Amino acid sequence: MTSVCILTDSTAQFPTPIFEGREAVNMMALHLEVNGSRYENGDGLKTSDLPKTAVNGATLKVEAPSTDEFEARFQQLGQVYDAIVAVLHAGSLTKTVEHAQEAAKRLEGQVDVIVIDSGTTALGLGILVQEASAMALKGEDAGEIELLVRSLIPRVYSVFAIPGLSYMQQAGYLNHSQALLGEYLKVLPVYVLDQGQLTPTQKARNYRQLVDVMHEFLWEFPNLEHIGILQGAPPFETETRALRERIAEDFPDTPISEHIISAPLATLIGPHSLGLFVKQLGEIV
């Protein structure tokens, strides 16, 4: 029986905090900088500490773990495990996947490392990591775990309402004029994370319509295994309450989890964002 470690990053959030194989899951933290203060490994920064907007001179930066950091971690874990499967957030969001791949290439023939771009983040990433860790606990080899994770990626979907467009601009996803105009007009842009890319789909006219948009997103999928709500800070209390009521009525047998957006993801897309994640039912290879 081989021993396999699952490595993920600090944007991952798990639908259930305790799950099979949790002890085999290791974390690589992103480095955050807010208004000149650097938070190594994200320690000491809460989502609620972040300003609602970055328009008024706030400076925010998210750094992926460096190639050297990944190399050191792979070497460390390689002394304990036979293989490492790194399941990381969408490569379009930061250079995390790129740096992990570079480090794995440096260690070819020394440490058995598989790097997977999950195409998702937060709860979507957590769902994939939980499935991978359960297989690792059963003694499956790294190749089988990779096959499972890649088969699950097309069954995980997400949608976001991101009013904090100034955060998107600082992260390099929008230009300055788009972000400034969007926040001035108080638009509620809706994005899907599609094939690893944040793609705008529509704008909600108001918060009531935002609930309709989120609810309609769920109806695109006939069979759901899990629904996850990613709450912003400050929270969308009225909207999430209405959304929960609709979900309970329309999907009474589908498990639901609710979580506050993590500081690393909030620094990328803004703390006052609302996300919805789903995992479709399907055969597991």
Topology:
Blueprint: E1 4-9, E2 25-28, E3 31-34, E4 37-39, E5 60-63, H1 67-78, E6 83-88, H2 96-106, E7 113-117, H3 122-137, H4 142-152, E8 156-161, H5 165-170, H6 176-184, E9 188-194, E10 197-204, H7 207-218, E11 224-231, H8 237-250, E12 256-260, H9 263-269, E13 274-280
Parallel strand pairs: 1-2, 1-6, 6-7, 11-12
Antiparallel strand pairs: 3-4, 3-5, 8-9, 8-13, 9-10, 11-13
Helix pairs in contact: 1-2, 3-4, 7-8
Polypeptide structure, described:
The chain is built from 9 helices and 13 strands. The protein is α/β, with parallel strands linked by helices and 285 residues long. The chain folds into 2 domains: 118 residues, 3-Layer(aba) Sandwich (Rossmann fold), CATH 3.40.50.10170; 125 residues, Hypothetical Protein Tm841, Chain: A,domain 3 (2-Layer Sandwich), CATH 3.30.1180.10. It has a 6-stranded mixed β-sheet. Helix 3 runs antiparallel to helix 4. It is globular, with a radius of gyration of 19 Å.
Kindly report the spatial arrangement of strands forming the biggest sheet.
10-9-8-13-11-12
H/E element sequence:
EEEEEHEHEHHEHHEEHEHEHE
Instruction: Look at the structure and give the CATH class of the largest domain.
Output: Alpha Beta
Which overall shape is indicated by the principal axes computed on the Cα atoms? globular
Total number of strands: 13
Average pLDDT, all residues: 91
Radius of gyration of CA atoms, rounded to a whole number: 19 Å
How many domains make up the coordinates? 2
Main sheet specs: 6 strands, mixed
The proportion of strand residues reads: 25-35%
CATH fold title of the largest domain: Hypothetical Protein Tm841, Chain: A,domain 3
Distance between the termini: 19 Å
Low-confidence stretches: none
CATH architecture label of the largest domain = 2-Layer Sandwich
DSSP summary: helix tally: 9
Helix content: 25-40%
Computed structural class: alpha/beta
